[in-house]
Amino acid sequence: MPNLKDLKNRIASVKSTRKITKAMQMVAAAKLRRAQDAAVAARPYADRFNAVLGALSASVGASDSAPRLLSGTGKADVQLLIVMTSERGLCGGFNSSIAKLARTHAESLAAKGKTVKIMTVGKKGRESLKRDFGDMFIGHVDLSDVKRIGYADAQGIARDVLARFDAGDFDVATIFYSKFQSVISQIPTAQQIIPATFDGASEGESTLYDYEPSEEAILADLLPRGVATQIFAALLENGASEQGARMSAMDNATRNAGEMIDKLTIEYNRSRQAVITSELIEIISGAEAL
Amino acid sequence: MAETMQFDLVSPERSLVSTSVTSVQIPGADGDMTAMPNHAPLITTLRPGILSVMTQKGTDDYVVTGGFAEIGDGLTILAESAMSKADLDQVTFDRLHAEAVEVAGTAKTSDIAGAVDEAAKLLSDLNALAAAAGLQTR
To answer: Which range of residues forms the domain containing residue B127?
Structure first.
């Protein structure tokens, strides 16, 4: 049986751990609110953008002059996976579930004989994919200095990706991120960004627009921006998911610490009582022996 | 009372303006244009310039640096970056200008047709913008 002093120390240390996890949970809750607000505020732009781009590509897409960002290179041999994770840990299964999805994706592509290239955003995903896919890494974006994700960050990533596309480094690009569903549920998602894909939902009631300059020129101008917009939306979703995952992970940790303290306190009281009882028995039996 | 239409100015990060307006002057890529209610549906890209929004209360000026405008039932401007004209200062302008100069530099080495012309146009657009905002041009 552990002695009293050890138990007391353990209780104290679990108590301070609980304080830390509680504080982290509250910080994550505040950050989650901000991240959610940012994601909601960015939605009108992305929605409008995709609606216009969808209508444009529906009318231009069939022709041969369609830009390569829309029609693709005609092959799918070289696949670029852009894996977005967080810069910090202690957020439950958030990073590992994104990494897992990317891993299965990469393995199935490799099994089909495609060349896989990986670009990571956020150091946690890089760390967990490094061992198996280290030789496929072609780039890494570090966002650890970024306090609030801005459009400029997404533009930077998009510029890098587009430059590689123009150089013929890959045929298809897919981003991996976590979609924010609620605090307790984040869905790891794979989304193809090059060649661009659109939901066909907006097609029924398309207005006939005039275009200035020509349709093709506008499409050529908008598609690169579309890549940046999609990356930006994914980054924001990811940010909200990360904080949500951290919040529920820390909530669990706080609860577990509380249970542990209760258990240890019972054990502590029991062994204190045992010590008192045995002391009493010693005294009584000593007195009887006289 | 003059007719009005719905006007939205949104940037990637948030929605900046949502109001009803009587007319809006847009710095289109092929030239300035004014959109009034019941304008024919049109989509145009933007060049860096000044967006004048006329409401019944008066005129608000915004600076946009690129993006596109969609005229449908109302008018939606999707701007890469947008700010009130009063907020454009020399520091911001210098940063934009430096970026444009960099683009012009890379355009010279690239073999894409018209890249140099486009970069030069971007620079002159920016300078025109600075002149209109009363800033020092480069």
So the answer is: 89-132
